[in-house]
Amino acid sequence: MTSIQSLSAAEARRAALAAQGFADPRPTGNPSARALHRVLDRVGLFQIDSVNVLVRSHYLPAFSRLGAYRPELLERAAYRRPRQLFEYWAHEASLLPVDAQPFLRWRMAQAADRSWGGMRRIAAEKPELVAKVRDTIAERGPMTAGELEAENGPKAPRSGPWWDWRESKLALEYLFWAGEVSTYDRRNFERRYDLTERVLPPEIVATPTPEPAEAYRELIRRSARALGVATEPDLRDYFRLKPDQSKPAVAELVEEGALIPVAVEGWRDVGYLAADARIPRRVGATALLSPFDSLVWFRPRTERLFGFRYRLEIYTPAPQRVHGYYVLPFLFRGQLVGRVDLKADRAAGVLRVPGAFGEPALATPFVPVADGELALPAATGGSGGSVRGAGAKRRAFAEEAVASLAAELRALAGWLGLERVEVAPNGDLAAPLIAAVG
After folding, report:
1. At 382, is the pLDDT very low, low, confident or very high (cuts 50, 70, 90)?
2. How far apart are CA 132 and CA 425, in angstroms?
3. What is the per-residue DSSP string for 272-326?
4. How far, in Å, CA of 342 to CA of 269, rounded?
């Protein structure tokens, strides 16, 4: 191999942000369906999660990049004809463009071996039930799991404190994993299922199934486009591939010239730069990020890119939580500079902020240089050169970040139909944020 290219840590960060759509200006006025699809073209999929303490997670990535868009634009793309998105297991449960479906059929074909234990058991031990469930959907049309349970007889006992999946639900989920049924729409977040050939556009159903190796290459290609620069594990994680699937695909894309090996400052592993990746001179985006946003969902990458250690504490007992129940990272000038615990109190019309916490980059945006003065790192938007009056600049940076966070919280509250923002006195950012929110 010839000499490998190199990127600074700041260049890698800016490449990642640009690939995820954060170098694009937010639209003025009401974001259009075209703007929403531009976001989806960049990120490739939105992860779905059931937690609704703030808003369902799949609605947030577009808000982070576009501002106050209309959620019905996403719902129409996902659940109305002509259908542009579909649900499947991509990076966990996901909404993704329908043209990705043929490249996930290899996963569907492995349902008997790779689906979760209860689904595998039902398929192996009660194939007649699986067939009955499919036949019922084929005959009756879109149905929820509850409607199927009523159709197929008395409810079985609960299987445990976390799950209430009876056998017909397990059969449905197996058929979903196998690609035989898909989400037709959702009612109060509950899926209604229909046969896949009646959900997807006819041209997608008619698309020939690619060979698995071709599908792996295409999924890695999409991962690379969405990540900008990434290690092989980063690329693998985006669509949850296995190493024996991703490593040959990465090597083939390097040979093809679609991926360029790079040495990234501070990275232990080789990086791969997408051939068409942009590396802007600066990224000035401000955004609150879903815990399941594709910029931060792979925690080792988040720590490597931003020096930001992030752990979701939903399942941590309340007394042991460090930052809170549903904590959103805050992006400011290309850095993750803080995090806020958020809750939509719909009854009171309040966006509650139970905690607000700053990162070192927010408190100390300058670093010492050899001549004893202070320099603003390129990552914060500065040139890296010597700067006098560093204390004042540090304060100005922190004040601007807090003001921007307050503005973003007010915008989020308005988008959610909430009347005001209330910040609890918890965390080192709470006092200045309370003053900024007003």
Report:
1. very low
2. 56
3. EEETT----S----EEE--TT-TTTSSHHHHHHHH-------TTS-GGG-SS-SS
4. 35
* Beta-bridge partner residues of 332: 286, 335
Q: 59-79: per-residue pLDDT in tens?
A: 999 999 999 999 999 999 999
Helix (H, G, I), strand (E, B) or coil at 157: coil
Which two tokens mark 256? 């093809």
239, 90 Cβ separation under 8 angstroms: yes
| CA–CA distance, 372 with 368 (Å, rounded to integer) | 6
Helical spans, DSSP H, in 320-389: 360-363
Q: Pick the range with the lowest mean pLDDT from 123-132, 178-187, 203-212, 381-390.
A: 381-390
Shortest CA distance to 29 belongs to which of 1, 72, 57, 70? 70
Q: Which string of DSSP letters, residue by residue, matches 159-207?
A: --SS----HHHHHHHHHHHTTSEEEEEEETTEEEEEEHHHHS-HHHHTS
What percent of the chain is predicted at pLDDT more than 70? Answer: 89
pLDDT given for residue 394 in this prediction:
77
As a whole number of angstroms, the distance between CA 172 and CA 185 comes to 15
> Within 10 A of 260 (CB to CB), how many other CB atoms are there?
17
SS3 263: strand
CA distances from 275 to 56, 152, 235, 254, 294 (A): 34, 53, 14, 10, 20
